[in-house]
Amino acid sequence: MLDIHLPLMLFVLVLFLILLVLLNSMLFQPLIKFMDDRNNSIAKNLEAAKSFSGNSDELNAKADENISNAKNEAAAIRQKAIDEQKLLAASKVEIKQNELNKEYQGFLEKLTMDKENLKNELLSQMPLFKESLKAKFSKL
């Protein structure tokens, strides 16, 4: 029925083993090396990404700190300018009030002098006024 030829079987076995050795050296080893290299590359890239994300967090913290310092400095400068302008405005108001007080005092002195002059003038013309009144009453 079936003839088994030992030399042919040995030849096929040797051929199969040679094929395994050749495929192992030409295909499987380079393929395994490529996959290992790729895994190593992915691991390195992940580590680099983690270190960059750590650096970016640190840089973001520094940037936030710089922005905070700049805002505080700007607020201090703004407050200083506001205080200086308030002092300047207060001094201008005080100067103007003093000037107006002096003008008011001058006005009061002039008013008092005019009042005295008018009083003296009326007193000096009082006899004429009395005579004119007497003349008018006598005509009635």
Describe the structure.
The structure is a single chain. The chain is mainly α and 140 residues long. 95% of the residues lie in helices and 0% in strands. The chain contains two helices and no strands. It has helices at residues 6-124, 126-139. The longest helix is centred in the middle third of the chain and has 119 residues, at 6-124. It starts with 5 loop residues before the first helix and ends with a helix. The model has no long low-confidence stretch (mean pLDDT 92).
Mean pLDDT: 92
Quantity of strands, as a count: 0
Helical segment count: 2
Percent of residues in helices comes to over 70%
SSE string: HH
Instruction: Give me the secondary-structure category.
Output: mainly alpha
Broad shape: rod-shaped
Instruction: Please mark out the parts with pLDDT under 50 across 5 or more consecutive residues, or reply none.
Output: none
Kindly report how far apart the N and C termini lie.
Answer: 184 Å
Give the amount of beta strand, in percent. under 5%
Radius of gyration: 58 Å
What's the structural blueprint in terms of helices and strands?
Blueprint: H1 6-124, H2 126-139
Quick gist of this model?
The chain has 140 residues and is an all-alpha fold. It has helices at residues 6-124, 126-139.
